[in-house]
Amino acid sequence: MSRQTISSSAATARENARHATGEFGVQPRAEADGVALLDYDWSDVDANARMFEVAQKAARRVVRSTGSADRGYSADDVAQDALVAVLERRARGGRVDNVHAYINTSASNLAARAGRASVRAEDFAAYRALAGRIAEKQSQGQEPTTEEIREMAHDIRENWHDARHRPSPEFVQNVRGWEVADSDRVLDDHSYFDRASLGGVSHNDVAPGSWLDRALDGVEGEERNLREARKMLWNAVAERQGAPLIETPHLGHRNVTAARRSITPDTDVQALVARWEDETLDVETENALFAPWPGEDIRDRAAVANLLSANPDYSYGMWDSALRAATKPR
């Protein structure tokens, strides 16, 4: 099949899907016109030649980690919706300076919500609308707090286009745990993190006794213990994102030494994750990359890869934190 540009009817369908509030709702996918996503020629709408590739990789990763395909929301669907979010933003005259981060965030949020079997159709559509608002804030260099996200959710529900079939009250209540992927920041071995580096996390956002609470105690408490805090960085972020935690130390020092031989502070962890996604990573390096997380569950590994990819500036620091937490004491 020859490559085709997006048809005008598909563009019209997307425009019709906008609500009176200006929010982008459930748009008919372009497949309705008989044109598959892989047949689109995106080069005429985006100067970034890698945008389509980025969307595909992000979609494959998050679909594997969330299981959204089991609910009929495939990687192709995720990629298309993430790309449409970018095109929509640009069509309104907005800027998307970091296409990679924008697509990753949109794809992660879309697929994560689709993977939850209990989500109603209206709630899922509302989550997609919420993901769009969050991504738009990100594109403007703003990281919304949990309270701001909750206010967005409340506004979406109150102004829903069909008052008889609005999202459930749980849609607003459940957004407490929603965090944009790029807001969970961690620093490398030569520094530490605080509430500001976690996207404006307030004291009310931190559950007492949580990994984040314990880690922040290490950098803000009366008895500062940065070494212990660094060991908690992975769990502090993973706990909020639903990625696998390091529950107990399980790695012997021989295994730790082998992992550090393969992955050093100079290693491009993002490149390793990309090679793993493309199934071109050698076994030894793959074992090192996932050494902190025991087991062979593909969804767990995909969730780890997703979180590392969402934090490109700190991916080594996060991996190092997980390895420290997984190391048995001598």
Q: Would you spell out the secondary-structure blueprint of this structure?
A:
Elements: H1 8-16, H2 51-66, H3 75-91, H4 99-114, H5 121-139, H6 146-158, H7 169-173, H8 211-220, H9 226-241, H10 253-262, H11 269-277, H12 283-289, H13 298-310, H14 315-326
Helix pairs in contact: 2-3, 2-4, 2-13, 3-4, 4-5, 5-6, 8-9, 9-14, 10-12, 11-13, 13-14
Q: Uncertain regions: pLDDT < 50 for 5+ in a row? A: 1-49, 176-204, 219-224
Overall mean pLDDT stands at 65
Principal-axis shape equals globular
Query: What is the SS-derived class?
Result: mainly alpha
Q: Please work out how many helical segments DSSP would assign.
A: 14
Tally the beta strands.
0
Number of domains: 2
Terminal CA distance? 61 Å
Would you give an account of this structure?
This protein is an all-alpha fold and 330 residues long. It has 2 domains: 8-181, no CATH class; 184-326, no CATH class. Helices cover 52% and strands 0% of the residues. It has helices at residues 8-16, 51-66, 75-91, 99-114, 121-139, 146-158, 169-173, 211-220, 226-241, 253-262, 269-277, 283-289, 298-310, 315-326. Helix 5 crosses helix 6 (146-158).
